[in-house]
Design a protein that fits this description.
alpha/beta; binds magnesium ion; ATP binding; globular; five-stranded mixed sheet; 281 residues; binds 1-O-pyrophosphono-5-O-phosphono-alpha-D-ribofuranose; transferase; Alpha-Beta Plaits; six-stranded mixed sheet; D-Maltodextrin-Binding Protein, domain 2; binds adenosine-5'-triphosphate
């Protein structure tokens, strides 16, 4: 049975469970359940703190997990990122009280508070900046006001927490994070894992694409399919009406409205866009 680690709380938990449910897996009914077996799909889910997931997967105790790229890197665990899952996006950034420092080299000899001490130490030591890293569990934005640090490094999503604390980001992002699928280093390919990864890949594609159908005069079909090349190749079917064809193609969801405008200008009519519920490519 494939053993899968899933975030039990925090910013990644709800979206991870939604993705697994969309991929056809049974999920826990109560937030108190620690483990559930999905016998129909031959997998077992372990609900764990996202920060701990890389540790279990790195040890090989669990076969695969969902966690944040930043948490994986901070753990130092022997686990590899397999693919980004497109949710839980954030930047990891330095911030200081507005107007006090302007670049990362100003940190020399200062105190930096963070929940991601490994990532921060590695970043600063690579740049030869000598700091004292103060490791805190959360609410890191308060550390400066409370006098335990001169700067912080923390997860930034909208930036509103920083603004409320009177802080501003400085320097380049330390890293860009999102939820990722992780496996133990050098894990063997198994058919159970392949099925799991293919299901998640199917969800990613179903989320990123829509199905587009339209009718167009035969003489314009080449130009139309150039706008909607699809992933493999568009389906072109004859219409009962002489001189017209129907085209069906997958189109990126974020481009769909623009593509429809361009198809309209080419003379396409009867354009319909529908969601894709699931797919295997
Ligand atoms: N707004 C956000 N706040 C915190 N983490 C976020 C946010 N958006 C995305 N993430 C990602 O979620 C992961 C952190 O989740 P985690 O559960 O450890 O922290 P949390 O959501 O702050 O929960 P808690 O503070 O209860 O531990 C990281 O990978 C981080 O990049
Ligand atoms: O840029 P924003 O959209 O404001 O989001 C980022 C903030 O959210 C998280 O804190 P959380 O609420 O999880 O509290 P914590 O610091 O105790 O983990 C994170 O640690 C930042 O503080
Ligand atoms: Mg938090």
């Amino acid at each position: 049975m494939l053993k899968i680690a899933v975030p039990n709380k925090g910013a990644l938990a709800e979206a991870a469970v939604a993705m697994l449910a969309e991929a056809g897996y049974h999920q826990r009914r109560s937030s108190r359940d620690l483990v559930i077996r999905d016998v129909d799909n031959d997998v077992e889910f372990f609900y764990l703190r996202p920060r701990d997931i890389a540790v279990y997967v790195g040890e090989g105790t669990l076969d695969v997990g969902i966690t944040g790229r930043d948490l994986l890197l901070d753990s130092g665990a022997d686990a590899d990122e397999v693919k980004g899952l497109g949710f839980g996006r954030s930047s990891f950034r330095f911030a200081v009280p507005a107007g006090t420092m302007s670049e990362v080299s100003d940190f020399d000899g200062r105190r930096i508070a963070t929940s991601y001490a490994t990532v921060v130490r590695a970043y600063l030591s690579e740049r030869g900046i000598d700091t004292h890293v103060v490791r805190l569990d959360g609410a890191v934005e308060s550390a400066i006001r409370l006098g335990v640090a001169d700067a912080i490094a923390d997860v930034v999503e909208t930036g509103s927490t920083l603004r409320q604390a009177g802080l501003e980001v400085i320097g380049d992002p330390i890293l860009e994070s999102e939820a990722v699928l992780i496996r133990p280093n050098n894990a063997n390919e198994t058919s159970a894992y392949d099925v799991f990864e293919r299901r998640l890949q199917g969800v990613l594609v179903a989320r990123a694409y829509v199905m587009m159908d339209y009718d167009i005069r035969t003489e314009h079909v080449e130009r139309a399919v150039a706008l909607t090349p699809g992933i493999e190749s568009p389906t072109v079917s004859p219409l009962h009406r002489e001189g017209w064809v129907a085209v069906r193609s997958m189109v990126r969801r974020d481009a769909a409205q623009k593509v429809m405008d361009e198809l309209w200008a080419l003379g396409a009519r009867g354009t319909l866009v529908t969601d894709i519920l699931a797919c295997r490519l």
